[in-house]
Amino acid sequence: MSAPALATRGLAKSFGSLVVARDIEIELPKGVRYALIGPNGAGKTTLINLMTGMLQPGAGRIFLDDSDITALPPEQRVRRGLVRTYQINSLFPHLTALESITLAVCERTRAARIWWRQLNAYPHEIDEAHDILVALKLGSACHRLTREMAYGQQRLLEIALALATRPKVLLLDEPAAGVPREESQELFAAIAGLSSDITVLFIEHDMELVFRFASRIIVMVGGRVLMQGAPHEIANDPQVRAVYLGNTPAKILHGPRHG
Question: Which of 115, 112, 5, 100 is nearest to 51 (CA)?
Answer without folding.
Answer: 5
